[in-house]
């Protein structure tokens, strides 16, 4: 009977045939242990010399890493393995022999691994990270669908910049100038006025010359946008959403978290509500922690975010940033126009900002004033202004960076391992 590794639990005591690749092996004169993978999981195949043909045993001893084959054997429970099952192999049929697979079980340098990303993805660790990424995506749809949000797809090619013009990828759009989207937000605001509560999930592009463990040139963002929701409502949705994805990963990716040796006790604490501090308080906190140079009005860098996060076990919202350092569309605090109704959500354990969000300006005149201040002239932004002309309402939204979120939940140091084919400064291959 055909099976996959993920389905062997249904076949305990039965003989199954599974299409696999050989991940690793070790053997003695009498027994060979094959680490087999099929994409759905990893299982150990045991080949006992006394129980198979001489030809099969020789094959098991000599088979090379990443050779593809069909293995046939009996599924048995195995309490010693984290997976819980093993395969007592009685037959093997090679499909394609892999010769000199470059990524051996020994240590390799990062650049070497990045050059072989197309093969590195097969490793147990990378497999675990991508499965966690997949679970975060799945639970994102689950969360927003349950809450009645409509999935809306903003364009990738656009004439407008949401997050400032310095980090845009330019391209020609026939005779016109166009950019690759930095954020779908402006379009999601239009969608919120049509569907009430919406979310998007798609690639975004930033020509950032940053070479840090938190920056990608191409990354994926989840961007919810909600009509009739203010700053406070916005934070409530964010903490519920982030708690939901963390708890879903804990529930459905136990094996993967175990493979990555992730400390799950810290993740179990990630339940709404999350702590909230204002930017003003954050400045005080930083001064207390010895950042003497930081001045009110400056943006936070990675060391600041990490220092703030250290004071909390859960992600922390930093709210009410100075108007000057935030995007043009953010609504000023009605009690204090030098700060805006925004929040960045900072992950624990030094993983940095995972969400940026805000209540949006809904007043036409104020938005026109911002256009002037930010030199947003021309036709590209006219449509966005019109959203404030026809039944404008209070509305809010946010963007969660998928890769930073995966890095945090999976406990991976660098975002380059959280996306299948990372686009980094100086890396477009493979
Ligand atoms: O804070 P950002 O720039 O916010 C926006 O783009 C808003 N328009 C979102 C919205 O309100 N709809 O980006 C949102 C998140 C960040 O918190 C971070 O997690 C991630 O996107 N991010 C990056 N991730 C990887 N590499 C980069 N270069 C990133 N830049 C932002
Ligand atoms: Mg931000």
UniProtKB/TrEMBL annotation:
Its main location: cytoplasm. Keywords: Aminoacyl-tRNA synthetase, ATP-binding, Cytoplasm, Ligase, Nucleotide-binding, Protein biosynthesis. Residues 130-430 form the Aminoacyl-transfer RNA synthetases class-II family profile domain. It catalyses: tRNA(Asn) + L-asparagine + ATP = L-asparaginyl-tRNA(Asn) + AMP + diphosphate + H(+). It is found in: Cytoplasm. One of its GO terms (molecular function) is asparagine-tRNA ligase activity. The keyword Ribosomal protein does not apply. It is an enzyme of class 6 (ligase). It holds the Pfam family tRNA-synt_2. It comes from the Bacteria. Signal peptide: none annotated. Its EC number is 6.1.1.22. InterPro entries: Aa-tRNA-synt_II, aa-tRNA-synth_II, aa-tRNA-synth_II/BPL/LPL, Asn-tRNA-ligase, Asp/Asn-tRNA-synth_IIb, NA-bd_OB-fold, NA-bd_OB_tRNA. Homodimer. HAMAP family: Asn_tRNA_synth. NCBIfam families: asnS, PRK03932.1, PRK05159.1. Belongs to the class-II aminoacyl-tRNA synthetase family. This is Asparagine--tRNA ligase. The gene is asnS.
């Amino acid at each position: 009977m055909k099976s996959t590794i993920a389905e062997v639990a249904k076949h305990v005591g039965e003989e199954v045939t599974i299409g696999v690749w050989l991940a690793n092996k070790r053997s003695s004169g009498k027994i060979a242990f094959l680490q087999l993978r099929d994409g759905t999981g990893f299982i150990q195949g045991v080949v006992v010399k006394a129980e198979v043909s001489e030809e099969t045993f020789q094959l098991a001893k000599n088979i090379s890493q990443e050779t593809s084959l069909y293995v046939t054997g009996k599924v048995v429970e195995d309490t010693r393995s984290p997976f819980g099952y093993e395969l007592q192999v009685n037959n093997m049929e090679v499909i394609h022999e892999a010769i000199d697979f470059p990524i051996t079980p020994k240590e390799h340098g990062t650049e070497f691994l990045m050059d072989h990303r197309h093969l590195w993805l097969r490793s147990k660790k990378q497999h675990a990270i991508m499965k966690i990424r997949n679970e975060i995506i799945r639970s994102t749809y689950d969360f927003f669908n349950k809450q009645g949000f409509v999935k809306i797809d903003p364009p990738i090619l656009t004439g407008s910049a949401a997050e400032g013009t310095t980090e845009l990828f330019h391209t020609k759009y026939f005779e016109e100038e166009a950019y690759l989207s930095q954020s779908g937000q402006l379009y999601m605001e239009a969608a919120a006025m049509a569907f009430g509560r919406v979310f998007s999930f798609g690639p975004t592009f930033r020509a950032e010359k940053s070479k840090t463990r938190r920056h990608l040139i191409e990354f994926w963002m989840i961007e919810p946008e909600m009509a009739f929701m203010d700053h406070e409502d916005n934070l409530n949705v964010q903490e519920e959403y982030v708690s939901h994805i963390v708890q879903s990963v804990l529930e459905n990716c136990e094996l993967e978290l175990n493979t990555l040796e992730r400390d799950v006790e810290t993740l179990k604490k990630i339940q709404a509500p999350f702590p909230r501090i204002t930017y003003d308080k954050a400045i005080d906190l930083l001064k207390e922690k010895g950042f003497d140079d930081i001045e009110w009005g400056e943006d936070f860098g990675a060391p600041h975010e990490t220092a703030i996060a250290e004071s909390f076990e859960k992600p922390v919202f930093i709210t009410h940033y100075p108007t000057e350092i935030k995007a043009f569309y953010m609504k000023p605090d009605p009690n204090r126009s030098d700060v805006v109704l925004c929040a960045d959500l900072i992950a624990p354990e030094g993983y940095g900002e995972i969400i940026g969000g805000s209540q949006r300006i809904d007043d036409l005149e104020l938005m026109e004033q911002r256009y002037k201040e930010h030199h947003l002239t021309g036709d590209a932004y006219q449509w966005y202004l019109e959203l404030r002309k026809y039944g404008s309402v209070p509305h809010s939204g946010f963007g969660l960076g998928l890769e930073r979120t995966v890095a945090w939940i999976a406990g991976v140091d660098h975002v380059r391992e959280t996306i299948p084919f990372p686009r980094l400064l100086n890396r477009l291959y493979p």
